[in-house]
Amino acid sequence: MVTATYPPWKLPELIEVYTKGNAPDYPPFLHTVHHFVVQDGDYKNYGIYECDDDKIKEGIEAITKRFYRYSLIEGYKYKIEPLLDSKEAMKLLGFI
Fold it and tell me: Is residue 70 within 8 Å of residue 14, measured between CB atoms?
């Protein structure tokens, strides 16, 4: 999951970067599941991505390359958080 925040007055700059069309493509193994946007003072975006377990490192690298260009905009911050399904987490912890 990627969480990104930015001030509302920076939206025109983000749209400009987004519409330039020069973003690195995501590799075929990385799938966008959903994007959500919330305004809570700042804008907050949630991007949910999915890939096979053996491609997690490469997936994070691809997401970083794509989101880095936005981080050059003052006030833009993003965080990549690998998530586990609840059952997967319980298995890793030895509960099931």
Answer: yes
Give CA 44 to chain center in angstroms: 11
For residues 1 and 81, the answer to whether their CB atoms sit within 8 Å is yes
Strands 77-80, 42-50: parallel, antiparallel or unpaired by DSSP? unpaired
Copy the structure tokens of residue 25.
């493509």
Structure tokens, 9: 């007055």
Q: What is the pLDDT of residues 16-62, one digit of tens each?
A: 998 987 888 899 999 999 999 999 889 999 999 999 989 999 999 99
Residue with tokens 């003052």: 74
Token digits of residue 50: 């999915």
Q: What is the largest CA-CA distance in the chain?
A: 48
Question: Cα(first)–Cα(last) distance of the chain, in Å?
Answer: 25
